[in-house]
Write a structure and sequence with these properties.
This protein is an alpha+beta fold. It contains 6 helices and 7 strands.
C-alpha cells in the first residue's frame, strides 16, 4: 500500500468493510471496559448483524459524518474505529470519537497515530477550523494521547456519566487548525 493522506506511522484509516468487520466489532462490544472508555453510553453487547445495521444507518448521515476503520500498517488488521461527526460546514467544526478495540494495541501509540491522521484529514481535506471531543475524566490514557496531538482542555461537566454506580466527569477538549499547523511545522 502506498503512502496516502489516510496513512500514519502505525495505522491507516479506511472504509468500514461491513461484512468482514462486523464480527470483530461485535466481539469488542462484549468488553465493557472498552465500551466505557469509548463512550459514556451504557455498555451493551451487540451482534455482528446489529453492527452492520448501525453502519448502514450511519451512511445516511454522510454529509455530516465520516466513519472510519483503523487498521495496522503491518498486518492490515482492524484494531479500532474512528468517527468525525456533527460536522458543521458553515462554521468549520466537527466532533471526534475514536476507540481501539484490540487490547494488545492499547497504550502503544496506535490511537495517537490514528488521531493525527484524522486531524490531517479534518484540517487539510475537509477544511475544518476546529475539532472537538469529549472523554471521561477517568480515561487518562486517552487524555494523554489527545494532548500529544495538540488538544487542550476546554471544559468539564461534573458527574455527567453514571458508570458502575459512580458519577464521572466528562472532559471537553479541542484543537484549532492553527494550533495543529504549529505542531505539524515544529515536527518537520
Amino acid at each position: 500500500m502506498g503512502v496516502s493522506s489516510w496513512q500514519g506511522d502505525l495505522v491507516w484509516l479506511g472504509a468500514i468493510e461491513s461484512e468482514q468487520d462486523a464480527a470483530i466489532v461485535a466481539r469488542w462490544s462484549r468488553d465493557s471496559e472498552y465500551w466505557r472508555l469509548r463512550d459514556s453510553a451504557p455498555a451493551r453487547p451487540i451482534t455482528a448483524a446489529q453492527a452492520k445495521r448501525d453502519w448502514e444507518a450511519d451512511g445516511g448521515r454522510a454529509a455530516g459524518a465520516v466513519f472510519l476503520a483503523i487498521r495496522t500498517l503491518v498486518e492490515d488488521r482492524l484494531i479500532g474505529t474512528a468517527l468525525l461527526d456533527g460536522i458543521g460546514w458553515p462554521h468549520g467544526f466537527g466532533w471526534l470519537g475514536i476507540g481501539i478495540g484490540e487490547r494488545e494495541f492499547w497504550g502503544k501509540g496506535y490511537g495517537t497515530d490514528a488521531v493525527q491522521v484524522i486531524l490531517r484529514y479534518a484540517f487539510t481535506e475537509l477544511n475544518l477550523w476546529r475539532v472537538s471531543l469529549s472523554v471521561l475524566a477517568t480515561n487518562a490514557r486517552a487524555i494523554r494521547a489527545y494532548e500529544k496531538c495538540g488538544f487542550v482542555l476546554e471544559g468539564r461537566v461534573r458527574g455527567l456519566a453514571h458508570i458502575d454506580g459512580e458519577r464521572i466527569d466528562e472532559v471537553f477538549m479541542g484543537i484549532l487548525r492553527e494550533e495543529w499547523e504549529q505542531i505539524r511545522h515544529a515536527a518537520q
